Amino acid sequence: MAALGLFTFASGLPGPGAASAAEARTVRIVAFGDSLTAGYGLPASAAFPVQLEAALKAKGLDVSVENAGVSGETASQGLARLDWSIREGTDAVIVELGANDMLRGLNPATTRKALTEIVQRLKGRGITVLLAGMKAAPNLGRPYQETFDAIFPELAAAEGVLLYPFFLDGVAGERALVQPDGLHPTAEGVRRIVSGILPKAEELVAQVQAKGK
């Protein structure tokens, strides 16, 4: 975050102790997703939102990260609860949905439509968005895989929002980093996710602050 130079003049302009409203208050982030966000199979302290908040604070950022993950949820189910899940005063949302759509083999067009509406509704409320991408399993076939994987970069580009291309980057397929079900990350797996997404999360905070909210 760029420092804001403040100088004291005889005319009574704010002195060094007067920070802008954007810098003076906590940036409120909501992690909105499925079991990967909720922390399935983990203690609450090891869930993604908790670990991300700690990592951002370690970077000197004044943030809070709320856990709005619901296990088993599809993108369409997330859309259905969006308005009441994202409270007034939220500055930014990390959208992490689509894994369950893929695992159930749902039509990618349905997933795309729901995610598009989620992003557009959030933007309409003045909320900054980071879209966390997902990738389809190879056993679903190349046509499905290519169509599904394209949802996230294309949506982020069309709506002008931040993108982290693959939420499970560095974790998927790594047996030491996933629980016995082979799907959900361990606490160490979540740490790997946080390490990967952290630069984008910092950019998310910077965008909020740049808006002067």
TrEMBL record:
InterPro entries: Ester_Hydrolysis_Enzymes (IPR051532), Lipase_GDSL_AS (IPR008265), SGNH_hydro (IPR013830), SGNH_hydro_sf (IPR036514). GO terms for biological process: lipid metabolic process. Coiled coil: none annotated. Residues 31-191 form the SGNH hydrolase-type esterase domain. GO terms for molecular function: phosphatidylcholine lysophospholipase activity. This is Lipolytic protein G-D-S-L family.
